[in-house]
Each structure stands twice: as C-alpha cells, then as structure tokens.
Amino acid sequence: MGCDGGTIPKRHELVKGPKKVEKVDKNAELAAKWKYCALSQEKLKRPIVACELGRVYNKDAIIEYLLDKSAERPNSEVVAHIRSIKDVKELNLTDNPAWEGERHNIKGDCYEDMHCAMFICPVVGLEMNGKHKFLYLQTCGCVFSERALREVKTEICHKCGDPFQEDNLVMLNGSKDEVEKLQKAMEERRLKAKTAKKSKKSKDTKVSKSLDSTVMHLLVQSLKLCSSFSHSAPGPSTSGECSKMLKAPDMKDKSETYKSLFTSHSSAKRTKDQISNWVTHTPYHF
Length: 286
Description:
It is a single chain. The protein is mainly α. It is built from seven helices and eight strands, in the order ααββαβββββαβααα. The longest helix has 57 residues, at 176-232. This is Replication termination factor 2. One of its GO terms (biological process) is DNA replication termination.
C-alpha cells in the first residue's frame, strides 16, 4: 500500500526511530519557580512565605489550603508537609528598583525583560531570578544571595541585625539533592521537638504525682496525730480540736475576706479617734 504515482519515500518516513526527549525551556522553568506560587500557580505578591523545603508561596494560598485541605488542588503534594501556619515563614524581601511592574507594559508595545526580577539581594544587589542561589533565615525571614553570605561571613543578619546560626539557613528553590537534604533536616528537627515535648509532659506528670504523695503523707501524719491525742486524753474538747484542724475553711470566712477588699467594709471605716478635727473656713469679707 502506498508509494503510488511514482513517489519516492525517504528513510525517516519509513523507519521510526526513538522519540526525542522534549526539552523544557530553562527560562520558563525559572520563571515558574521564582515568579509564581508553588501551590496556586498565581503570580507572587506580598505577603510571600516559604516552607522548610525552600518552596515559595503566596500566604493567601497557604491559608486557604489550611482552612480546607479536602479541596482538590493540582499541586497539593507540594504542601503535604505543611501542618499549620507555623511551618512557613514570611519572607522579608528587598524590592528591585529596576523592576517597573506589569503596569509599564499594559499595551504590549514595550520591551519587557523577562529576566528582570521583583526582588534583589540587599547586600550585593543580585536579582532573585533563579540564576543565582538565594537563602532565607528561619529566625527573621530575611532573604540574601549565597554569594553575599559567602563573601561577608557573619553571625548577624545583614538586614535586621538578628543573630542566626548556620542551621537557620534554608535554600530557596534548591535542586533535588538540596531539597532531600532539607527534608531530612526537617524530619530530624520535628522528631527532636516531639521527643522534647513528651519528656516535658512526663516530667510534669512526675512532679504532680510527687506533690500528691506529699499531700497524702501530710494528711496521714495529721490523722495519726489526732488519733494519738484522742487516745491519750479523750474528751469532747480534744475531738473538737482535731475536727477543726481537718475541717475545710468556712465559706463565711471566705466571704468576709472578699468583702474586706472594698472600702465599704467595716474594717476599712475609720473610728472617731482617727477622724481629723480640721475645719476649713473661707471668709467672704476682707
């Protein structure tokens, strides 16, 4: 079948070779990571947050996800590790003065540089467009380029001055290996916090039990003391004193104590001896 009318087919039309791997445009991939929310796929707008794995989101999208996790979303797997709003940190970003925004090219008749980023590094001025590595601090949320932290080594934030450690640095939109490393650190950190919480709870339980045992011991001692008094000198007066020792405080005493807090109570009123005899007289004649 085919090849009628004197047509001469070529080799690539008859022999099917392996399919070519489709290459993703690198610029489009970078724009998707650094200009769009990883959850809602909408353009990033303040307030912007980042998770412990370095992914960037719009804060509104994270709040909507936490309020209704059952709703169907195309990228719900990227936020499966986010349990509450405490698992994300709001980023303290530095605006890029060269970025004029979307209003500059409303008509579409102006040149728009796709590599121009909304934010820059406050130390060296590198644009946050994916060509350079950026990190953020989990303590304060400030964002810097890796070059700035490498060239200016310090343990104090360059922007706000808060102290930080190397463990507080999180790579933004890192590679696959970097994300796996961050995920391992996140799991270890959460396990450590869970263990500390359990140990604190068990410690509080032990303290409460020891207090209960102490109270019971004192109660038993008081009962023994009363019984010894009753055996040594039986009589209505001794038993009455023991009952008074073990009797709970009367509600009348409590009410009197409460009333004494106010100036209208009898204990707050002054006696005649305490009242002064000074009389002020203002004459209306000179």
